[in-house]
């Protein structure tokens, strides 16, 4: 039985004459996103289900530890207070209050919300994984960066990057996408997606990744994005594409989980003269099969994840996917629910064995993928069909682990012979 659907990366639509949706009117995009939100609202329960088991122990977001329970209680307080605040807004107009009373009410709510968020977020500075790497090969020239998603405070961010560090045996830097509470985080997602607004977190990530790409000591810059972090990551990539020479992007790899983004740009490479000075012992860095600026982008999504259905699954497989721009391979875990990074993605896709190592076998990675030929043809056009018929790209059943590049980094390993 097929439990994973695979969708190849999207071809560049340089010949298209219509504007891409994410470049349209922000207010039309906002209205479209609001309608989409309510259309997939039936999957909302899939954000936190399943609640059990706890494959990563205390690193799992819903594990009954003191810090996790504290975070859940603070979020419950924010949900109640923010819901009450939003419900009172119509009454400001129906039963106008004196201006001074309204100002006091707004200031008191802002202060209360800010105090709770401060307890959740801490100082908001980037964090570094705290997993000892003694006994593991130090991968020189690699920089790993993570951006978190909705509702993640300081404690959960630390858990996320520690789980990633233990999975891939690399030090991971976490750029903190500060939470303002789940409801306000969703509103922020709408503003970021539809108005292309870069928050302070996005700017911080932009600076960090840009410096990593410019550093000649780095040969790989791996960026992992979760949930809302994929919105900010996509905007960050847009900035970087406009600011850096294409050759530097040959270092960059991007992996997302439950992405809430509405686009992912990855333009084709510019033509390079035959005698380009940019060469290595293996040949020109530009001579890549896909001829894309960023060589590796992968998206992982649970079919029943509300955020994924509002994001990556809608914009790669929705009714208008051919008119969207969402580059990168998609691995959709059919029948799976849950949105939390550790508990619902890493615990299943990079499950641990009894020794705390990533097990060589799990249901997701061993799943035989259904490469959807019809959708792939529509997604990539004639070029995809030609590649498949010429034998350069196989259509049919394959295990996930054969095409998942991220899997090849498990337990301190690296992909072989692929840059």
Automatic annotation (TrEMBL):
The keyword Cytoplasm does not apply. PANTHER family: DUF676 DOMAIN-CONTAINING PROTEIN, DUF676 DOMAIN-CONTAINING PROTEIN-RELATED. The keyword Membrane applies. It comes from the Eukaryota. Keywords: Membrane, Transmembrane, Transmembrane helix. This is DUF676 domain-containing protein. The chain crosses the membrane at residues 36-52, 72-95, 101-120. It comes from Trichoglossum hirsutum.
